[in-house]
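Suppose a colleague, Dr. K., hands you the sequence of a protein chain of 248 amino acids and asks what its three-dimensional shape might be. Before reaching for any lab equipment, you can write down a predicted structure in C-alpha cell form. Begin with the sequence itself:
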Amino acid sequence: MELVVVGTGKMARAIIAGAVKNHEVIVIGRNTESLKEIEKKYKVSTKTLHNYNMNGKNIIFCVKPYALVEASKNLYGKAASVISVLAGTSIKDIKINLKATSYIRIMPNLAATYKKSMTIVTGDESFKEQSLEICSSIGSTLWVGSEKELDIATPVAGSGPAFLALVAEALSDASVKEGLKREDADTIVRGLFEGFAPLIKNQHPALLKDGVMSPGGTTAAGYGALEDGAVRASFMRAVHLAYERTKK
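The predicted structure, expressed as C-alpha cells, is then:
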C-alpha cells in the first residue's frame, strides 16, 4: 500500500523508518533540506508541500496540531483515508480541513523507528482493518472504541517514552551517586529496560513485582522508599494532567 506522510518531524521520521519496510512511502514537507535528508536516509520519494493532490491517497497527517489549518491549505482533492497523528485534535476538526472517505486517529510513539511502537487507533470502522495493518508496520496496535479513550491513552502510549526516560535517568543517577561509573550505570539501565519488556508481556505488573520482592529484602526496602516519595501517585497525576491537556 502506498502511504503519503505529511510532515518531517521526529514522529514523522519514526513512522517513515518503520513503515518503509512494508509500504511504499512518499513524504511531503515544507523544508527542502529536511526532505533531501529524509529521501537519502530512508530511500523514499519526497515532494514539497504545495498544492499537493491527495485524491485517492492514504495520508498520514503528522504535523504539529497548531499547523493543521496552514498545512491543509496546501492539500487538495479527496483522500482515500486521512490518518491523523495530531494529539488532542478531533476527527471533527480534521474533517473541517481535509476531505477524505475515511478518517482515523492514531497515537504512536518514537519506538516506531524500531517497529516497536504501541499505537492506539480509532476512527471509522469501515477503515479499521486497513488502519491496523498500516500501523502494525511500526509495532503493536490497539483499536479503541472512541476518541476519548484514545486521548486517555495518549499520556501512556505517546508520552510514555518520556516518562520512562525519566525513570531510566533516575536509576542511572542513583547508581552513580552510590559509586558506579556513569558508563556502567547507563549500560545496566539499558540492559534492564531491554529485559523488562518480555517480563511484563504475559503477566500483570503486580505479579512481576511480587515475584521480585522478597520479605524484608533489598527490593522491599527500595519499594518502600518509592511509596514514601509518592511515585505511584505522581505517575497517576502525570497521566491525568497530560490527558487534560489533550482536551484544550
